[in-house]
Specification:
Layout: H1 2-29, E1 42-51, E2 54-61, E3 64-71, E4 74-82
C-alpha cells in the first residue's frame, strides 16, 4: 500500500506538469504552421455556441461579413452583409493643465 501511495505522489504531479507544459507549447506553436505571414483574406469576427454540437460564426471575407453555422454535418452559409467599419474604443482625454 505504501508503494502505491508513493508512486501516486510522484507520478500525479509529473503527469500534471507534462500536461501543462504541452498546453503552453501548443499555444506558443499555434501560429507557426499557418501558410505564411501575408495578409489573410478570412477573419473570424465573432463566434457563439448554440449547443454542444452547433456553433454560429461571423466571418469577414473580402469586405463582406458571412454568417455561418458549423456543426457535425459541416458548415452552412446562413446570411451575408457588407462588413461593418471597425469600432474605435472611446478614450476620454485627461484635463491638461
Amino acid at each position: 500500500m505504501f508503494w502505491y501511495i508513493l508512486k501516486l505522489l510522484v507520478l500525479l504531479p509529473l503527469i500534471g506538469g507534462l500536461a501543462w507544459a504541452s498546453l503552453k507549447f501548443a499555444k506558443r506553436m499555434e501560429g507557426k504552421f499557418t501558410g505564411g505571414n501575408g495578409a489573410k483574406s478570412v477573419r473570424i469576427v465573432e463566434t457563439q455556441m448554440l449547443s454542444p454540437t452547433l456553433r454560429l460564426a461571423v466571418l469577414e471575407f473580402h469586405g463582406r461579413e458571412i454568417l455561418v453555422s458549423a456543426g457535425k454535418n459541416g458548415i452552412v452559409r446562413l446570411a451575408e452583409a457588407p462588413a461593418r467599419p471597425p469600432v474605435q474604443p472611446k478614450v476620454e482625454a485627461e484635463d491638461a493643465r
